[in-house]
Amino acid sequence: MAGPSRTRASAALVLLCLPLVAAAGWGLGGGDDDDASIARAARRTVREAFVKNLNGTSFAEVSAITNVVPLGVATRHAIDAMRGVRTTPGGVAVDARGNPLRAMPMVCLDFVCVVLPALAAMLAPAVALPTLFAVGCAAILAATRARARRRAIHAGGDDARSDDGFNDVVATSPRRSFLARFPGPWYRPPPRSADEQSSRRPSALPLGPLDVLGAPRPYLAAYRAAMTLTTAVAILAVDFSAFPRRLAKTDSTRGVGLMDVGSGSFVLANALASRVARGLTTSSPSWWFAFWKRASVDVSSSNAHAGGGRDATNDATGAAPPERAHTIARTLRSTRWWSLIFLACARGLATHAMDYQQPVGEYGRHWNFFATLAVVDLCATATPLPPAFSSFAGLAILVAHQTSLLRGASPSGAGAAGVASSYGEYLLRDVPRGEGLLEQNKEGVGSIPGYVALYFLGAGLGRFVERSLCDAAKRASIRCVVIFLFLFPRVRTKRNERFSPARHRSVTTSRSIARVPSPFIESSTDESNDPQRDDARAERGDGGGGSRAGGDDRRVHGSRTARRDGRGGDGAREARQRVRGRRRLGRVSGAFYTLVPIRPRRRGGRRSLRTFAVVSLRPPLGFNTRPRRLSTPPDAFQLHPDFRLYGTTFSGRGGGCCRSPSPTRRFGRLR
Amino acid sequence: MLSLAVADAAFWAAAMTLHARCQAVSRRTANAAYCAWMLAFNLQVLLAFIAAGLLFPATPPVPKLLAAVNRRLLPTFLVANLLTGAVNGAMDTIHVGTLTAWASMVGYLSVVCVVGLALDTVLSPQSVRAHSGTKAD
Q1: Whole-prediction pTM
Q2: SS3 for A647?
Q3: What is the ipTM of this complex?
Q4: Does B17 reach chain A within 8 Å, measured CB to CB?
Q5: How many residue pairs bridge chain A and chain B with CB atoms within 8 Å of each other?
Q6: Does B121 contact A at CB distance below 8 Å?
Q7: Of A142, A238, A367, B71, which residue is 20 to 30 A from A202 by alpha carbon distance?
Q8: A313-372: per-residue pLDDT in tens?
Q9: Residues A231, B77: contact at Cβ < 8 Å?
Q10: Beta strands in A3-111 (DSSP E)
Q11: What is the C-alpha to C-alpha distance for residues B77 and B87, in angstroms, rounded to an integer?
Q12: Do the beta carbons of residue A389 and residue A463 sit within 8 Å?
């Protein structure tokens, strides 16, 4: 970590220490009073009984309560989707109109959607669980519908935009953006602007860039944070009587409690976010050799044993790898590890000072979970294991641990007699406790192999998740390409383009066709209805100057348009004007302009099937085109006072003049 | 995704089997059943988070609050621990009514979240905070 950030981190730690010191002082100062200490001791006894002898609940209930949190996150996304919130390529969240969102309402919404449901599910599971699941599913469903509706409107909006004649090409069709999500050799993303290129599309997919192993994974961030917040909810909620006792930590030797999830999840979250899990260390055999070679040469500086790059050549060349795997030295230097140690000490001191009920049987007399975390971190990072073997190592450690726990166990499960029949029974036994430091903290120390195994298994699991997601992305993109090849073979072969979805078929580029010699075009124009040829010819006719006169062009083009809509050479003239306009634009911006022709059609004809009369999503015209007579001002028919008797007008929509009963006003119009 | 789901099912089966046949889940000893349960449970939650992200790909991938807490995990947790102690010292939590319990829980959680956000705002540079999915390590 760099210097300034280290300074800031230590400043933050000092800030965090202040309440701790205050609390400790308060706890110690209060200890002088006898009555108060007796009362506190009584309260402590009550509280210890409150969290004791709990047998836990079922796997299903624990999972149901915990899954409220991802559901809350999904609901949060659903609310965003309903509001049309999206992320710009720069990583800024903007609303449907493109304005950046304010942070405060967003955070409040996060709190309501993610943290409060967890609290409700813990304090009142019977009521809250069905309610929360129903609300969450309803929100997701509503957001899905809203998104579909918005997509339809956007599609219609594209057509409406194409009304001005020459921007029929729509930059992002749904299919195209879907392909763009899975970059690969078969898809060349369109050139991006400078500010887009500077950031590597952080939110192209909510899984991070899938082609990069070890990239930041948003789901992992959400998981870790949500787990921490849920644990934070649970550690205070358990002290209230509203919290069902069956969900608390199982204080009897065995059982499944909601709060038993916390410690294992913390270890697993660390493992899932570790470098091994994210594929940041290489697993090639040279990893081993490099490690042992360097370790034998210089133990103290051996922390560069694993090249962070994806190939092992970094080690061979001896260049400093960009990312290094953990070793003991590195771990001992890391801020994180020291903060864990600090937290362990702080927690122990605070518990002691404030006389908080801490069952001795949980971790031991002095041990606490932060110490377990720190030791697990140290053990796991100190073991020179290639990442590919971490899950096997975890399995081996776990088997060994379990075997040692079970060794010598009697089927009756003795332990009441005070003599443990097995190591496992000894660990779980509460009453006779030795005097040594190790004896007093036997639970904490004894469970370390299990947590180390869990860490290694978690690292392997993280690798598995990472790789299966990358594989899934590859498979999906391959499937996508296959579908495209299957659906649009004609387009591909005919136009010699990369791909062209159906809706672009009539409006794709014609620059290449414009370069084709003219006889080919003229011979092919008559047999196909392809509109591009018209425009291509229009361009040549316009730009060619002396070689090809406008009259020639008018002959071919005009005859076709005359046959179609009987307008003579209007179409050609329009096309030429269009081209001229584009040329002007091109000269101004200096860009290379692609011609985008319009399909010749009848006057008032549909530009696209999607603007079909029944389902048109275009805004209505300012006037009604079909019943022409009604576009005449209604005043024209109000000269006669008895006009309504004839019954030939729409008396309902006749406007204020028709309805007005006073003849003076009616005749006032006459004058 | 499918392979992950299959793996999760396998972990659940292993956890159930170990719990029933070998040795019941025991967090104190961190036995095999406990480890298998943890793997199954956490993989399932992780899958739920992945699915939650995939449902609406266009929205910001991580809620702001969660992104901040993710970057300041341990300090936030320490604050939560300390506040737990403080609340326990300040009131007789076992005997208070449900309404008081709810009110104090909401207050406590908002303080924890505000502290996490504030730490993130103070400590993380703006460039890190802009990309909400980035994990700072």
Answers
A1: 0.62
A2: coil
A3: 0.92
A4: no
A5: 373
A6: no
A7: A142
A8: 333 323 333 344 445 666 666 777 787 888 888 778 877 776 666 666 677 777 888 888
A9: yes
A10: 86-87, 93-94
A11: 15
A12: no
